[in-house]
Specification:
It is a single chain. Helices cover 38% and strands 4% of the residues. By secondary structure, the chain is mostly helical. It folds into two domains: 65-290, no CATH class; 322-350. The chain has a three-stranded antiparallel beta sheet with strand order 1-3-2, with helices on one face. A hairpin with a 2-residue loop joins strand 2 and strand 3 (241-245). Helix 6 crosses helix 8. The chain is globular, with a radius of gyration of 29 Å. The termini are far apart.
Length: 352
Amino acid sequence: MSATATFGPGVQSKAGHNRTIGWLAGIMLLVSLLTSETLWANWLEALGAQDNAYAQDDSLQPVTDQEKQSLIKVIENPAHEDNLTPIEATELNEEIPFTESRITSARPFQLFSQKLETGLTALRCLTQAVYYEAAYEPLQGRRAVAQVVLNRMRHPAFPNSVCGVVYQGVNRPVCQFSFTCDGSLNRRPDPAKWAEAETVARDALNGYVEERVGYSTHYHANYVSPYWAPKLLKIAKIGAHIFYRWPGGWGLPRSFSDRYAGTETIPAILPRSLVRKNGGDFDAQSQAFAEARVPANLVPDNRSDRDVGGRLDVSKGWTASIPEPEDTVRSSSIIARQQAGEYDIAAKGNGS
């Protein structure tokens, strides 16, 4: 005699229901992956695909090598001082027309290692840029600053890391972001505004794109008028900042094809008194300091010239000097006796 197992209608219906839910969940996941712009953007970038959104724009021609060198000088040469008043600068800025070229939003960038040391360092550098450059700008203006940093990171004219972009030129006569060398980092940030800046930075590293500024790589406050502004294409004005991109082929999406370096470091910052404005070499000690790197997840301890805080101030010609153990015994003994009231500081010169 054989036994046959039978299941009631209720059990069959439940199994079928579970299979249906499983299929639906799988389909939803597949659709989510297929429609993820960030995922596809990262895959296309990894495969070397280039955005040709401007391919039909015949008015924009690729730049020549000579023109590239000229454009690079825009970001490397010291700024010219025009001594304009804020009103004069604002009027001059208004005379520069906005470009009529189509603005295409940048590809999203997603840093998958945000909880690791590299990701935390990138987040810190981008937060610094957003905070010190645009803490009191509208939200869109803060996001635009973060977008400029990420745009530069992908362009061959700039370093290929977040911190590399933010700290570019920090130990040269001209910093790309002035807050890194004008003493701003010595000021304690406002906690609430820092938290807002960190949120903007984290969103940008998670793939958020500020579409209004497209592939902008430069910006300045409206109350100044830098000499390079007429040489670039004026894209947008958000809050107090005006945003620009490179002219010609160097400003097109296909030029933003450099790979992310994958590592982040924060450079040690030389006192401005040591930065040579007329070229020349540093002494060996200063050069070693300039090339040093702090731990990747720390912010440089930048203090004023009057508060060296125990750090070696190479600008004064100081050198490290650690006394021999036998030379410290007598000093320690004198200090102990002085604290105990057994030693008259006025008589310290007689050896008693």
